């Protein structure tokens, strides 16, 4: 993978809002596994990061299908809803609309952020691999690639076609991290939450963000990881 230009130390200086650690952009697209993205937002808030959120139209449908979470589409109301469910401080979460080309993520001259597309549909995967930039999620990922910033994609589909696999290979070669929503079972998960946290912990590891969701390999288990992110 290409070296990230967004080390936590440098990013902290580039943070837009005072008092928060570096911004992380989280885009939820319409693959199954909305819970991974929602839990990631909670974990980033708990870790005191500024969180910039984009949710595609299809992702709203998946969230309504897979969860009991009710989220409005309008960005200001979405910001309020996500802030309230994650306990975010004022200004910690900012949500952007599908075509908000003035958002900081829309240009390389905007404040740098790491970006995670979680979950990542095969449609968005394809658009990002091809540089389509037809909406703000695709454009933000394009910016992350061209600026050599951290970009983590969490695809979920099964089985994968040659098209999906070729896009994943080309994105890996461009410096993105492909982190499939494929939780392991060696930590003996007792619940779906444990499976979700397995993936969210891996994403936080990629971002260089400390957490206690799961012990790292070779460490002894914490008493209750979900209590202390
Ligand atoms: C309930 C539901 C589950 C879906 N699951 C997946 C999936 O796991 N993977 C995938 O790539 N697409 C899945 N799709 C299809 C995508 O949502 C669809 O291709 C959409 O155009 C993606 O748009 P987006 O990338 O802009 O969010 C699902 C759709 C729905 C409604």
TrEMBL record:
Pfam families given in the database record: Flavoprotein (PF02441)
Which InterPro entries does this entry report, sorted A to Z?
A: Flavin_trans-like, Flavoprotein, UbiX-like
Q: Sorted alphabetically, which keywords does the UniProt record give? A: Flavoprotein, FMN, Prenyltransferase, Transferase
Q: Which SUPFAM superfamilies match?
A: Homo-oligomeric flavin-containing Cys decarboxylases, HFCD (SSF52507)
Q: Which reaction does it catalyse?
A: dimethylallyl phosphate + FMNH2 = prenylated FMNH2 + phosphate
- The highest taxon in the source lineage is Bacteria
Binding-site list for FMN: 30-32, 56, 121-124, 156
- What's the EC number here? 2.5.1.129
Which residues are listed for dimethylallyl phosphate binding in this entry?
186, 202
Cite the Gene3D superfamilies for this sequence: Flavin prenyltransferase-like
Query: Residue ranges of the Flavoprotein domain?
Result: 24-207
Q: What class of enzyme is it?
A: transferase
Q: Which GO terms describe its molecular function?
A: carboxy-lyase activity; flavin prenyltransferase activity
Family to which the UniProt record says this protein belongs: Belongs to the UbiX/PAD1 family.
Which purpose does this protein serve, as stated in its record? Flavin prenyltransferase that catalyzes the synthesis of the prenylated FMN cofactor (prenyl-FMN) for 4-hydroxy-3-polyprenylbenzoic acid decarboxylase UbiD. The prenyltransferase is metal-independent and links a dimethylallyl moiety from dimethylallyl monophosphate (DMAP) to the flavin N5 and C6 atoms of FMN.
UniProt name for this protein = Flavin prenyltransferase UbiX
Organism annotation? Onishia taeanensis
């Amino acid at each position: 993978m290409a070296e990230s230009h967004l080390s936590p130390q440098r990013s902290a200086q580039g943070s837009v809002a005072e008092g928060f650690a570096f911004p992380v952009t989280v885009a939820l697209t319409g693959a199954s596994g909305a819970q991974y993205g929602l839990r990631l937002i909670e974990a980033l808030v708990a870790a005191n990061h500024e969180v910039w959120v984009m949710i595609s139209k299809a992702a709203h449908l998946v969230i309504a299908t897979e969860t009991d979470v009710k989220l409005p589409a309008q960005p200001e109301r979405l910001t309020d809803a996500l802030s309230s469910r994650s306990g975010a401080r004022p200004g910690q979460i900012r949500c952007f609309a599908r075509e908000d080309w003035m958002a900081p993520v829309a240009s390389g001259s905007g404040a740098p952020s790491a970006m995670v597309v979680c979950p990542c549909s095969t449609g968005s995967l394809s658009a990002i691999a091809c540089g389509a930039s037809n909406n703000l999620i695709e454009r933000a990922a394009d910016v992350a690639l061209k600026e050599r910033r951290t970009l983590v994609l969490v695809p979920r589909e099964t089985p994968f076609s040659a098209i999906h696999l070729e896009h994943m290979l080309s994105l890996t070669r461009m410096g993105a991290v492909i982190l499939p929503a494929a939780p392991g079972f060696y930590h003996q998960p007792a619940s779906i939450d444990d499976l979700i946290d397995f993936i969210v912990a891996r994403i936080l590891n990629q971002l260089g963000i400390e957490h206690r969701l799961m012990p790292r390999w070779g460490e002894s288990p914490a008493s209750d990881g979900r209590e202390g992110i």
